[in-house]
Amino acid sequence: MSLHNFKDITGDLTDDEAKLIPVLISSFNNHGATNPIKAKEIVKLMNNYLLKKGILINFTGVRLRKCVNYIRKNSMIPLMATSNGYFVSRDQFTIQGQIQSLRQRANSISSCADGLEKFLFDNDTDN
Predict the structure, then answer these.
(1) What is the pTM of this model?
(2) How far apart are alpha carbons 82 and 38 in whole angstroms?
(3) What's the rounded mean pLDDT across residues 100-127?
(4) What's the distance, CA 91 to chain centroid?
(5) Of residues 4 and 27, which shows the higher confidence score?
(6) Which of 2, 72, 95, 97 could be a cystine partner for 7, CB 3.0 to 4.6 Å?
């Protein structure tokens, strides 16, 4: 499912992106809470990997987030994301904290949508 205004980055994985999922999972599995990896580092490493393989796609932060969402939605690994970076954790408390963080962010986005909707009703214009 693609999100309105974000079709290129929220649609289904391309064939090229799908091929990268096992590589990303393997890499993420090398990072725990004590050695998380930052998005910039992942992007750099993936672009180097792709270049060596002769694959002509540009791996970006946006593409990384798309892949991370796919990995999480499909319960492939318990992938955490914090301000310190990405890492895998099988600790129930850590996973519950990540779930709480994701739900809080979803609620914040929903509140933003509510505010814009309220603006439309409070400022009923014909524009």
Answers:
(1) 0.84
(2) 9
(3) 91
(4) 20
(5) 27
(6) 2
